[in-house]
């Protein structure tokens, strides 16, 4: 296996150094000024139509790589998401930029890795000495982090707005309190985006959301967000406005609390029984039990409803005659929840899940449908959430903004040729989180993936081409690669001013040991009991979280 020289890394990651930032106004003026030059681009990959392409960006929450049918799930049913894969490009090595939500979402908006934009944990998580309040008795105190999206950044919405696009946001935001909501970062319309990261009040109306009113008792939240998106496309149709649109549909699903209707629970309970219910569903991880099977019928129903909502949007594009000139993106902000929260799913054969440093925590469904380009194509080039910003700009025929999306690169050459030169991908999560992961940083270069753990200052090295399950640590066998990647990783982190955890002077090893023994001896058996209870024919959720059939 050939290793990319350090000089290649240094050339690529010259952007890891701190640079003077142009003002947002300068960036937007540059965008507008350069639009007049676009017709000179003989290599244009933009839509053949005279009308600029519309964009529908669909972001799921906590949705795992294995949670889709096209990636091999035999339990969940996702025909509409599968349709995007069949009609577009699937990046088989597609990633979120973090194993939890807010950092990944900020990266999509800014084109920057979390270590650079500073939102390194989900907004609201405890940090520094406040972490002791979590009662986990860990060795380290996680660092403070930014708790709002920086207004100095030019978001992807602002870039498209400056180019004359109508911009719309629906669903989960979780990038700052009021004053840093979607409408403060380039979206003309905001339906349901605010500071909360979960659906307050649940998935069935009435919910609590200052930016999404309750219309029908029992209405499903995912379907409502799809309906809001459809309504926007109706009232802002390019034929009537003479403007293209950029619509960002950001589901709260499939974040906890997991909820579904009785009918969908019954469907997936029967499916689990037909496939054979395993006697055990969990095994103990480093900090928490980790789910090993996909057989949660409540989660199955939640997934299907989100897919139904995706289908509503796709059908509307067809019916309005917009599909042939609309780019559709589908991805997720982190891996499926195998531990912590609702312990909802399994990401196997990938290791771990949301909050984890392994592939199950960061590898995602990563789909880009470009109607005038190839259909059903799989691309092995590693790609990440920061790449959407420059990719969509180029597909729309707009100039790139390299001083903004510093950690993203356009994937258009990969869409055309199927590959791109190797470059390093960086993850920085110096926190513990709620799912059992460990404070760590990661670099992937080619097929090599190195994980640095802060608790014991140690490394793990995996060759993902032969060990996607991350079972064979090669750090001791390949010390030269381990050392080289370690140096490259920290050159970049230190270059952007990354923050690191510190030792807790109050750490008590015995208290941590007792805590972990309680997890294994008490929580693990409760989870196994609850799993079998939900799969029992006698399970009764009462009013099924307020769900009911809604007449359209």
Q: Which structural class fits the helix and strand makeup?
A: alpha/beta
Chain-averaged pLDDT: 92
Rg computed from alpha carbons, rounded to a whole number of angstroms = 23 Å
So how many helices? 15
Helical coverage, percent range: 25-40%
- Enumerate the strands of the largest sheet in spatial order, edge to edge or round the barrel: 6-5-7-1-10-11-2-12
Number of domains: 1
Query: At the first level of CATH, what is the class?
Result: Alpha Beta
> What is the general shape?
globular
Total beta-strand segments: 18
User: CATH homologous superfamily - what is it?
Assistant: Alkaline Phosphatase, subunit A
Distance between the termini: 57 Å
Protein traits:
four-stranded antiparallel β-sheet, 552 residues, alpha/beta, 18 strands, Alkaline Phosphatase, subunit A, eight-stranded mixed β-sheet, single chain
Structure explained in plain terms:
This protein is an alpha/beta fold and 552 residues long. It has helices at 6-12, 24-34, 79-87, 101-110, 114-117, 156-162, 221-235, 238-241, 262-275, 297-319, 359-362, 388-395, 412-417, 479-495, 509-534, and strands at 54-60, 89-91, 94-95, 140-141, 166-171, 189-191, 245-250, 282-284, 289-291, 326-332, 366-369, 377-379, 383-384, 425-429, 440-445, 448-453, 458-463, 502-503. The strands form five sheets. The protein has an eight-stranded mixed β-sheet, with helices on both faces. The longest helix is centred in the last third of the chain and has 26 residues, at 509-534. The N and C termini lie far apart (57 Å).
């Amino acid at each position: 296996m050939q290793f990319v020289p350090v000089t290649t890394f240094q050339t690529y990651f010259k952007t890891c150094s701190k640079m003077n930032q142009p003002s947002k106004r300068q960036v937007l003026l540059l965008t507008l000024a350069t639009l007049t030059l676009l017709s000179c681009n003989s290599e244009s990959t933009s839509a053949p139509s005279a009308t600029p392409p519309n964009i529908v960006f669909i972001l799921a929450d906590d949705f795992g790589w294995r949670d889709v049918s096209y990636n091999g799930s035999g339990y969940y049913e996702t025909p509409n998401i599968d349709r995007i894969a069949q009609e577009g490009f699937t990046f088989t090595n597609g990633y979120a930029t973090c194993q939890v939500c807010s950092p990944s979402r900020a990266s999509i908006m800014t084109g920057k890795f979390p270590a650079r934009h500073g939102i390194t944990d989900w907004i609201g998580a405890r940090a520094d000495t406040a972490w002791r309040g979590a009662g986990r008795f860990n060795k380290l105190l996680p660092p403070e982090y930014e708790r709002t999206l920086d207004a100095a950044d030019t978001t992807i919405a602002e870039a498209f707005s400056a180019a004359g696009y109508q911009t719309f946001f629906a669903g989960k935001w979780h990038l700052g309190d009021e004053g840093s909501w979607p409408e403060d970062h380039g979206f003309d319309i905001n339906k349901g985006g605010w500071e909360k990261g979960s659906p307050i009040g649940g998935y069935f109306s009435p919910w609590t959301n200052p930016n999404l009113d309750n219309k029908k008792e029992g209405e499903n939240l995912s379907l409502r967000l799809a309906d809001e998106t459809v309504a926007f496309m109706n009232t802002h149709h390019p034929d009537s406005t003479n403007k293209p649109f950029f619509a960002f549909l950001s589901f709260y699903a499939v974040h906890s609390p997991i909820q579904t209707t009785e009918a969908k629970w019954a469907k997936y309970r029967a499916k689990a029984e037909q496939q054979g219910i395993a006697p055990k569903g969990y095994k103990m991880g480093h900090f928490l039990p980790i789910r090993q099977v996909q057989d949660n019928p409540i989660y199955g129903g939640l997934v299907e409803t989100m897919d139904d909502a995706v289908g509503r949007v796709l059908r509307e594009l067809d019916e309005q005659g917009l599909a042939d000139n609309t780019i559709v993106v589908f991805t997720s902000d982190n891996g499926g929840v195998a531990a912590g929260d609702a312990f909802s799913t399994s990401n196997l054969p990938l290791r771990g899940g949301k909050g984890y440093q392994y592939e199950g925590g960061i590898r995602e469904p990563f789909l880009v449908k470009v109607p005038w380009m190839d259909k059903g194509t799989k691309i092995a080039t590693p790609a990440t959430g920061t790449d959407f910003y420059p990719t969509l700009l180029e597909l729309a025929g707009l100039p790139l903004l390299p001083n903004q999306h510093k950690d993203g690169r356009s994937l258009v050459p990969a869409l055309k040729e199927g590959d791109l030169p190797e470059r390093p991908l960086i993850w920085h999560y110096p926190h513990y989180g709620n799912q059992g992961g460990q404070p760590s940083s990661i670099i992937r270069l080619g097929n090599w993936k190195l994980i640095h753990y802060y608790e014991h200052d140690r490394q793990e090295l995996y060759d993902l081409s032969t060990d996607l399950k991350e079972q064979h640590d090669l750090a001791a066998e390949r010390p030269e690669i381990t050392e080289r990647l370690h140096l490259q990783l920290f050159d970049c982190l230190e270059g952007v001013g990354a923050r690191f955890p510190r030792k807790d002077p109050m750490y008590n090893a015995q208290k941590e040991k007792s805590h972990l023994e309680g997890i294994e001896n008490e929580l693990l058996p409760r989870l196994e009991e609850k799993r079998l209870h939900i799969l029992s024919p006698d399970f009764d959720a009462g009013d099924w979280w307020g769900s009911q059939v809604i007449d359209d």
